[in-house]
Amino acid sequence: MDSPSDDRTDATSERTESVGDTPGATTDRTDDDRPGGREIEVPLHLYKVVTVFSTMFAVAFVVGGFVVLDSATQRAQLSLSEMNLPLAILGVGMIAAGAVVYAFSTRFRAEGMGKPKDDSDEQSDNG
Q: Which helix (H) or strand (E) holds 110?
């Protein structure tokens, strides 16, 4: 017995777009493959600067956030009513800020850097 959900497409399936003037001709491309997608292509020297400094700031914010959170709770030995709430919120905010900085920095790539999945010339050795 077929269920009605068999006819629906999954929300995570790849979107297709029309190619040229040929009706019905489509290509399977995700949002990441389109120009202006999630990745930003920059010159190599700028890519190196962004990668180094964003990683350094992200690590500093995350480690600093844990230190601040640890001091606000005095190594998690205080009860909820005794801990320094503004300092704890600052610590959690610093951890979140470090994660955001790192996530944003992963959008950059240098000119000529391709994705491994784009190399369709090579055959897969998966059995």
A: strand 108-110
In the chain, the N- to C-terminal Cα span, in Å, equals 35
CB 53 within 8 A of CB 65: no
CA distances to 31, 54, 100 from 41, rounded to whole Å, are: 15, 16, 19
Backbone φ and ψ of 5, nearest 5°: -75, -15
Q: What is the pLDDT of residue 15?
A: 46
Average pLDDT over the chain, rounded to whole?
77
Q: How much is the pLDDT for 90?
A: 97
pLDDT at residue 111, as a whole number: 84
d(CA 8, CA 27) in angstroms, rounded, equals: 20
Domain ranges across the chain: 41-110
Partnered with residue 108 across adjacent β-strands are 40
CB 83 within 8 A of CB 70: no
Q: What is the pLDDT at residue 82?
A: 92
Q: Which residue blocks in 1-127 are alpha helix, DSSP H?
A: 44-73, 85-105
